[in-house]
Specification:
Helix content of chain B: 10-25%
Helix content of chain A: 25-40%
Oligomer: heterodimer
Number of domains of chain A: 2
Shape of chain B: globular
Number of helices of chain A: 6
Number of strands of chain A: 5
Distance between the termini of chain A: 61 Å
CATH topology of the largest domain in chain A: DNA polymerase, domain 1
Chain lengths: 178, 744
């Protein structure tokens, strides 16, 4: 097999957490590695690099994606939000505060992905994106434990903090709808 | 050094103004914002970092014939290809641990055969795929023995490839079993399991002036330092290991793995720092797993339920010279009974190395013993909770002179039964129905030893009156940061928010590390010792009698005076370091933790699909240092127990000799949708024999017995007794009760 030419690089521009970023990247660099290795935004985690664990969940143009399954150069012009853009230790997003209050994490490695995923998931419910556990697919789903558990199942937590993650999400969801 | 050789008396921890409170984690703001940095993420600690990509062997046993790395070396960006031929001198530990870099002999599938080092991850990965490796295959043994009915090796019997490793007898089991009016004899099987922590093994290695520094994902900083020093033939003091955050471990990160060793080898070779993370598909075969087990349980009882004969025998697998999975250990101590036999055999397998995973021994062992107890209860026509209560013991059954320090299993059982609504369980399996779902309840007892080990820490009273704790203890999700801060706050009377905790650095005092559910009790006890020393120093500075000194609200009060701690150190911070060591209280008394687990399960009457509805665990684990983080440990264990019982299985290709489903799509672990309602109750029984903290471990207890409670619930729902884990619907499909329309 002839070696691939890996000296090629491509320019790509996108916004990350509201800041314009221009990178010159090997086209094989995933969005996840662009964030972690090139922008040093290491909040998005690499748990499997295969789209199987959800630890890299990142919000792109308002939708959650597995950043490991997407090449960075495909995101020209995109609006990318990572956990660093959601809140900071001295200015937590309410969901981050709820995760702390409910102990919705242990080792912390899946946590940024869980939080990004949950925020986009609540938006999906709001946009009436249906799920497998919904009784009536034509109606907007309620924000219930069953809906959250179903819609968050792409985010694995091996420490098993699921019950607390659901409690944290429910708390802020109820706060928003109240 | 503080020697703990008498039961703890009243001490400042008993005040429980901070300790024992459900405090939120102090590392929470960093973890929830992505600012907690794990091993691979230390991009700014040393410049010029390179990327290493690990290549695993494509055969399970045999030899490397040749590695052609020319194409890889020609690839732009590739710096070096490390193989056994150029890796430089290392001394491998042997003794059942495979070499971290194979060559020319291959000891197991995905054993590392090369590391491609490059300027970028992409170039390293590309280079890895360009290696041409040829092998000579050799035959291997990959399956546990299949024993005919009635055949089981005698306790000390050796057979080809099957070695007796541990046996213990009390009284005359065979005679008592033969004479018992009610008998159960069954076999069970548990599967090979993978830790599957979310952060794969990862390391950045850096050499400078003959000294090695590693930022690595490890549970045991001290072990990593010692192992690396031996491997590279340097002094321990020339190795520094740093692990401030670790993305889960469950035993997988107790010993160093190939990421650490190959990163260090490569960094030595290329003269630049090298970072290596195992790819997820490499984790299951390159590193360790929990061995599958075959187990045989025989129970003999009087008609009133009193056990007279207990035998538990098991077989696990491992590489030659490896350790066995001690699946029968808890059976020596859980129940009364005069005549007992426990024995383990180890089958020599050429699979990857088997090693510790959360609750080694008890986790698979109780999945057999506690189902056998359920089967015995049914044979006796007795309630399973009552059967366990009837066989409680307050001392080591092999040595009645050796009591348990604290044992409240009966209270766990009674509390759980009442809180769960156990009385609503149908005693006839397969008779409760909710629409298309068959409903059942099951329970099991849980047991896990409490282990005491020495541990050291340092505490510094800073000039602003705040405290800094330093120890090489790790926090792998267990809550170490938080409970150490609580301990220091309680001991010195300083608000929790004024305590900083620095962990995971071999430059700090050597702690017990994280494993065996020993971390919390021992690491806080080590810090307790340091705090006692600091209190004494403060009293001496003030010429204040220690017995009168009260530490509260950032000040010390006594002998008619009140002095702000910050006043005391205005010119210079003071620090104290100490270590807790233990006498023989764990020999004179059996120290252990206990649980009662209750599960309600629903099984689809048409498809056999299992949905758990409710789980409750009642735990007796000494003082609970932080009910919030301890509860998380227990619900996390219960969740892992769901995995063991219902889905987790590393499937062996018995021809080629490897785990086939080596990623998170093939190896299924519980996800959000699998979880039922979970409840945890902690009993309040501080154990004065365990340490000055009066705490015991809880992080593994929650897993011990959960699988059996699930199995027993499925039986109660369906009347189908499955004895091979994981309990999947294919085992039930043909045997489900005849379908009648749901009742009115």
């Amino acid at each position: 097999m002839a070696p691939a030419s890996s000296t090629t690089s491509m320019k790509v521009s996108f916004r990350v957490n509201g800041t314009p970023r221009e990178l010159e990247l090997d086209p094989r660099v995933t969005l996840l590695d662009a964030l972690r290795e090139h922008l040093h935004l290491t909040g998005a985690k690499k748990g499997c690099d295969h789209g199987q664990c959800g630890a890299c969940t990142t919000i792109v143009n308002g939708a959650r994606i597995n950043a490991c399954l997407s090449l960075a150069v495909m995101h020209a012009g995109d609006e990318i939000t990572t956990i660093e853009g959601i809140g900071q230790p001295d200015a937590l997003h309410p969901l981050q505060a709820a995760f702390i209050e409910h102990d919705g994490y242990q080792c912390g490695y899946c946590t940024p992905g869980q939080i990004c995923s949950a925020l986009a998931m609540l938006e999906e419910i709001d946009r009436a994106v249906p799920s497998h556990v919904q009784e009536d697919l034509l109606q907007k789903a309620g924000i219930t434990e069953a809906e959250i558990r179903e819609r968050m199942s792409g985010n694995i937590c091996r420490c098993g903090a699921y019950a607390n993650i659901v409690a944290a999400i429910l708390e802020i969801a109820e706060g928003e709808t109240a | 050094m503080m020697k703990f050789d008498r039961p703890a008396e009243r001490n400042p921890i008993d005040d429980q103004t901070v300790v024992g409170q459900p405090t939120s984690r102090i590392d929470g703001a960093l973890k929830t914002t992505g600012q907690a940095r794990y091993a691979y993420e230390q991009h700014d600690v040393v410049p010029d970092q390179t990327y290493g990509y690990l290549v695993g062997a494509g055969i399970a046993r045999g030899r490397i014939r040749a590695i052609d790395s020319r194409a890889a070396r020609d690839l732009p960006g590739v710096i070096e290809v490390i193989t056994w031929e150029n890796a430089g001198d290392v001394t491998y530990p042997g003794g059942g641990t495979p070499d971290y870099l194979a060559g020319p002999e291959i000891q197991h599938y995905h054993q590392a055969v090369a590391l491609v080092v490059a300027e970028s991850f992409e170039a390293a990965r590309d280079g890895a795929f360009l290696l041409e490796i040829s092998y000579d295959r050799a035959p291997g043994r990959y399956a546990l023995p299949s024993l005919a009915e009635g055949d089981w090796p005698a306790p000390d019997e050796a057979r080809e490839g099957l070695e007796p490793v541990d046996s213990d007898t009390v009284g005359d089991f065979e005679a008592a079993f033969a004479a018992a009016p009610v008998r159960i004899e069954q076999r069970y099987q548990t599967s090979h399991e993978s830790h599957a922590m979310m952060e794969p093994h990862a390391t950045i290695a850096h050499w400078a002036d003959g000294r090695l520094t590693l930022w690595t994902a490890t549970q045991m900083v001290g072990w990593a330092q010692r192992s690396l020093a031996r491997l590279f033939g340097i002094e321990k003091s020339d190795v520094r290991v740093i692990a401030p955050y670790v993305g889960g471990g469950f035993g997988a990160k107790l010993a160093i793995q190939s990421d650490a060793v190959l990163a260090a080898m490569a960094a030595r070779k290329v003269g630049r720092p090298v970072k290596v993370a195992l790819t997820r598909p490499m984790v299951m075969n390159n590193t360790t797993h929990r061995s599958a087990t075959l187990q045989r349980v025989r129970l003999g009882a009087e008609r009133d339920g009193r056990l007279t004969a207990i035998a538990h025998q098991g077989i696990s697998g491992n590489l030659a010279e490896g350790r066995h999975e001690p699946a029968v250990s808890q059976t020596k101590l859980l129940y009364a009974g005069a005549n007992r036999l426990t024995a383990m055999h180890m089958a020599i397998l050429d699979l990857p190395k088997a090693s510790d995973m959360r609750a080694p021994g008890e986790a698979p062992g109780l999945m057999a013993l506690e189902v056998a107890m359920d089967e015995l209860a049914e044979a006796l026509g007795m309630d399973p909770v009552e059967l366990r209560i009837r066989n409680d013991t307050q001392s080591d059954p092999a040595d009645p002179e050796r009591p348990f320090s604290e044992r409240h299993l009966v209270e766990c059982l009674r509390t759980g039964a009442e809180r769960f609504g156990w009385s609503e369980r149908s005693t006839t399996p397969g008779t409760r129905r909710d629409g298309d779902w068959l409903l059942g309840m099951g329970m099991a007892a849980g047991y896990r030893d409490n282990l005491v080990r020495q541990s050291a820490a340092r505490i510094r009273l800073e000039q602003d009156g705040s405290l800094t704790v330093e120890t090489d203890m790790t926090d792998i999700g267990t809550g170490s940061y938080t409970i150490l801060a609580q301990t220091a706050a309680e001991m010195l009377g300083v608000p929790l928010g004024r305590v900083a905790v620095r962990l995971g650095d071999s430059d700090f005092p050597l702690s017990v590390g994280s494993g065996g559910q020993w971390g919390a009790n021992n690491a806080t006890a080590g810090l307790y010792a340091a705090c006692v020393r600091l209190r004494a120093m403060i009293c001496e500075m003030l010429q204040m009698p220690e017995a009168e000194a009260q530490f509260a609200d950032g000040a010390v009060t006594g002998a008619g005076r009140r002095v702000e701690l910050a006043e005391l150190v205005r010119d210079e911070a003071i620090s104290a370091e100490d270590r807790i060591e233990y006498g023989d209280l764990d020999e004179t008394h059996q120290q252990a933790t206990f649980a009662a687990h209750f599960v309600e399960a629903a099984v689809n009457a048409w498809t056999g699909e299992v949905r758990l509805r409710r789980m409750l665990s009642v735990c007796d684990a000494g003082r609970i240092l932080n009910p919030k983080t301890a509860r998380s440990q227990v619900i996390g264990s219960m969740t892992m127990g769901i995995g063991s019982a219902l889905m987790e299985e590393l499937a062996v290709d018995a021809g080629a000799g490897f785990f086939v489903n080596h990623d998170l799509a093939g190896y299924e672990v519980p996800v959000h949708a699998d979880l039922p309602e979970q409840e945890v109750i902690f009993l309040d029984h501080p154990d004065a024999f365990s340490s000055p903290m009066k705490a015991k471990g809880v992080g593994e207890l929650g897993l011990c017995g959960v699988g059996a409670a699930i199995a027993n619930a499925l039986y109660n729902a369906t009347g189908i007794r499955l004895r091979e884990y994981p309990l999947t619907l294919d085992g039930m499909l043909e045997r489900l009760p005849p379908l009648a329309p749901p009742g009115p």
